[in-house]
Amino acid sequence: MGLETLLTLPLLQDAHRRWEKLILETGHGDTHKLLNFDRSALALDAAIGGHGVAIAPTYMVENDLLSKKLVEIWVDPDPSDDGLYISWAKNHLGQTRIKRIVDWIASEFK
Question: Within a domain: residue 30?
Fold first, then answer.
């Protein structure tokens, strides 16, 4: 499905505002109606319920794709510049359990 066709569908947007960014970056104007949610999970629940199309990172939807609750209809050809950040209290710096958690997270998102 091409982007022009995709943008004619109901667009479900979470707080990351990915639809707005995509519409502006591709020069498709700002006349599209977006249904805004404050959480990604709510936008995805609306998509599962058949209320529109949501943009989400693969890690958030992979189980729903496997179970056929969601269908992938478009993949952005440009890689995302989104990042994953972790923080912890200074007094935990250097603790073995923090290193194990950080190493696990890093291995999951390679």
Answer: yes
What angle do the packed helices 58-66 and 40-48 form, to 10 degrees? 20
14 burial type by CB count under 10 A (0-12 exposed, 13-18 middle, 19+ buried): buried
What's at 40, amino acid-wise? S
What is the average per-residue pLDDT within 63-75?
89
Domain that holds residue 15: 3-66
Is 101 within the bounds of a domain?
no
d(CA 23, CA 42): 21
| CATH number of the structural domain spanning residue 31 | 3.40.190.10
How far from chain centre, in Å, is Cα 102? Answer: 21
Confidence band, pLDDT 50/70/90 cuts, at residue 86 = confident
